[in-house]
Amino acid sequence: METIERKAEEVAHNSNNLNILKKFSEIVESKYLAQVEQDYIALSPGLILRDKWIDKSEISINPIIHGTNSI
Fold this sequence. Notes:
The chain is mostly helical. It contains 1 helix and no strands. The protein has one helix at residues 2-65.
């Protein structure tokens, strides 16, 4: 009987911990999701330009690295 009671207490304790995490997740989502979305929108154009610059640099450098430069 003690084992069952102990297991029941463990399950109740774990369930309480999960509820705390769920509540925390809901609070964080409601507070910060809008900010993360705004930051993504604001920063995306700069990241796209940086990606294009990196790609262009790789195209320019690859022939030199691989010895296929015609200079």
